[in-house]
Design brief:
There is one protein chain. By secondary structure, the chain is of the alpha+beta class. The chain is elongated and about 60 Å long. The longest helix has 17 residues. The chain is 26% helix and 34% strand.
Length: 238
């Protein structure tokens, strides 16, 4: 039976589109030897799907939860479920998110008159507000510095007088290829919260207070913590 057919409850992954991507974007499926191998042979994919379906059935999950293919494809992300072989030889499936912009983005730790500027943002994925630093994707044709200037202008209405690259980290390697380059940016002006960007408020704190807020659990944004730690390690913040 073809993998794109069959009686199943739930929404199956789009296997036909998956095979198109194998042909048109082969770089998405290339892996170095010795890691987790992506299986592209039809028989191997069927075997992996069958093994996962058996395990999922015991957990009360529908057969569609083992289907290999494209789960989501829009202007922002491509989400795939691959059939894989793990280093111990066992078969399974693995979900991954590929960002449309090539996983390039910036996170900016803004300083205005010696204080760190934090944004109070409502995040749909977790359903609540967080204190965060400005961040955004690198658009086609732009570089990292241009993105820093744009994000500061769009999110805090500020002007950057100096920006220092702090380093880069990956955000959630268990699921996505997303990563951010972090910058420390000195601002000469500061505007108002940009509601059109989902920003409800701005909070200014000293570096010392920021560190205390992290210890207290008041700052939970990993990007803010990463950028702050990198800035301190480079001797750019007290």
């Amino acid at each position: 039976m073809p993998l794109t057919e069959g009686k199943a409850s739930g929404r199956r992954a789009d296997y036909r589109r998956y095979r198109e991507l194998v042909e048109t974007r082969p770089e998405l499926f290339q892996r170095p030897p010795g890691g987790i191998a992506i299986l592209l042979d039809e028989a191997d994919i069927a075997a992996a799907s069958k093994a996962v379906a058996r395990r999922n059935r015991a957990r009360g999950l529908p057969p569609a939860s083992a289907s290999v293919g494209v789960l989501v494809e829009d202007a922002y992300i491509l989400m795939l479920r691959d059939a894989v072989r793990f280093p111990d030889g066992s078969l399974g499936t693995h979900n991954r998110v590929i960002y449309a912009n090539g996983a390039r983005g910036v996170g900016v730790l803004p300083l205005f008159q010696g204080r760190i500027v934090l944004l109070r943002v409502f995040r749909h994925a977790i359903g609540r507000f967080l204190l965060e630093i400005p961040r955004g994707s690198v658009e086609a044709g732009d570089g990292l510095e241009e993105t820093v200037l744009r994000e500061i202008a769009e999110e805090v209405g500020g002007r950057v007088t100096a920006a220092t690259h702090l380093g880069r980290t990956f955000c959630d390697t268990s699921l996505s290829n997303g990563g951010l380059d972090y910058f420390l940016a000195e601002l000469s002006t500061l505007g108002k919260p940009q509601l059109s960007e989902g920003i409800f408020d701005m909070v200014q704190v000293t570096p010392e207070r920021f560190a205390a807020m992290v210890a207290e659990g008041a700052v939970e944004d990993a990007h803010a913590v990463n950028a702050f730690c990198l800035a301190r390690l480079k001797g750019l913040l007290p």
